[in-house]
């Protein structure tokens, strides 16, 4: 009788241990259709284009678009970004505007928002050359989940998206082979 009770006890413990294993209930979603990539676009903001530069895309609706503006050489600044222009004689004071963007799965639209600022008259010719003409933007497509094929090397770390160098390192991107497109 003692042997039967021992086997029943071991069976009950074994059954309890097996039934507490919940690994079968975990559903993991992996984004295998997104490969992180980059594209440079260069264009000029003008009143004819409503101060907008557009670029077609073809990405899943679950991906994320990051946009950076080239500010000097190989330095990139994340947008949206407010730009405050120093006062100059003959121009209004407190001049400023925003580089901004919107996107969907077919298009990214980079624009200048200037609610209280008149770009054609409130900028000097040098400022137009610096802030509107031949502006280069880097579009970085990344998966919303960092587990895709082109995803992050360290799945448990977070990334500072405002730091361009941290983003390319996190997503293991090679920024020496970026496709360049001239628009408008």
Work out the radius of gyration: 26 Å
Roughly what percent helix? 10-25%
Sketch the major β-sheet: 5 strands, mixed
SS-derived structural category: alpha+beta
Structure report:
- This protein starts with a helix and ends with a strand.
- It has one domain (37-182).
- It has a five-stranded mixed beta sheet with strand order 4-3-8-1-9, with no helix packed on it. A four-stranded antiparallel beta sheet has the order 2-7-6-5, with no helix packed on it.
- The chain is of the alpha+beta class.
- Helix content is 20%, strand content 33%.
- It has helices at 2-19, 119-122, 125-131, 164-170, and strands spanning 37-43, 52-56, 63-72, 75-79, 81-85, 95-103, 107-113, 135-143, 179-182.
- Keywords: Signal.
- This is DUF1735 domain-containing protein.
- It comes from Chryseobacterium lathyri.
Task: Quickly list its features.
elongated; DUF1735 domain-containing protein; 9 strands; five-stranded mixed sheet; signal; alpha+beta; 184 residues; single chain
Short description:
This protein has helices spanning 2-19, 119-122, 125-131, 164-170, and strands at 37-43, 52-56, 63-72, 75-79, 81-85, 95-103, 107-113, 135-143, 179-182. With 184 residues, it is α+β, with helices and mostly antiparallel strands.
